[in-house]
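Write out this protein's structure.
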Amino acid sequence: MRTLFFILALSIAGNALANNVSKYFVNLDKAGAINSIAYSGDGTRLVTVSLDNTIKLWDVQNARMIGVFKGHKKEIKSIAYSPDGSKIASAGLDKTINIWDANTTKLLKSIKSGFGKIHSIAFSPDGKKLVTGGAVNAIKFWDIESGKKIASRRSYSGNVNSVAYSPDGQLVVSGSNVVKFWEASSQKELKDFTDQADAITSVAFSPDGRSIVTASKDSSIVIRDVNTGYIALSIKGHTAAVNSVAFSPDGKWIISGSDDRTVRYWNATTGLEIKAMQGHKADITGVAFSPDGRQFVSTSSDGNLIVWNGQNHQELARFISFDDGEWIATTEAGGFNSSENGQKYVSSL
C-alpha cells in the first residue's frame, strides 16, 4: 500500500480545522497519477490532467477542487492556459485537441489532429494559435478560431516531447532527440542542436526570450543562448531522467522535476543548486512557477500536486485526487479540505 503520512489539526466530521492535532495517513493506492499542470494567468487556479482522461480544476487560494473537464477518450498528456486565462487547451493519446472555457468547463471546440498521438501543446502569446508536438516526429501549427491546421512539419528526430513559443511569438522550440528552433510565421526549421545525450523531455523560454532551458532523459539540464546557440550552462545534479523544467517569471531561477523523485531549485545564472525538495513518492511529471513567482508547484505519478513556497522552498499545500473523483487537500499550517467522501482515504495512526 502506498501511503502519505502527515500531521493535521483535523476535524473528520466537518471538513474543517479543529484544535486537536493528530497523526494521519492518506491511502494513495487509488490516487490518480498526474501527467501535466498549468497555472492560470492570475495564479489563483491550477489545472491538472490525470490518467482517467479528465482535467481537474483547482482553486489554489481556498485549497479545493472546483471543476472537472470531461471529453477526452484516452489519456491526456499536456495542458495549457491561454494567455488571457479564458481558455484551456488539452491534448493526448486520442489524437484530439480540445479547447475549453476555463471558467465553465464547457467544451468549446474539438479538433482532430490526424495521425500521431500528441505529447505537448502550447498557446502562442497572442492566444490565437497553438503548436503541438507528438509521435511520428510531428510538430503542427493550428489556428484556434477556425480549428484548421496551418502547417505540419517533421522533426525527423524522434517523437516530439515538448514545445514552447518564445515570449514575442516569433519562435517555437521543440524537444525530441534534438532541440530545434522554428520560425513561427513560416513554420520553417531554423537550426537544431544535439548536445544532450538522450531524448529531450521538456523545453522552456526565459521570460526575456534570450535563453531556453532544456531537460533530458540523460539527467542533464542545459541553458542555451537563443541567438548564438551557445551553451551558457550545463547543470547536473539529478540522478535520473529530468521530466520537466521551468524558468521563474523574473528569469533568475529554474525548477526541475525528475524520475529521482526530487524537485530542484537552481540559480539560472550560476547553475548552483539552491535546494532539492523531497515530497513525492514517485517520479515527478511536471513543475511550474506561479505568475508572480511567489510559489511553484510539482506533480507526480504518485497523484500528489504540491504547492511550494518560492522564498523558503517549503511545502505549503498538497492536493490529491482519486480515481473515483474524490479529492482531499492539506496544508502545512494544519488545514484540511475534501470532497464529500474524500475522507474515506484518510485514517488515523
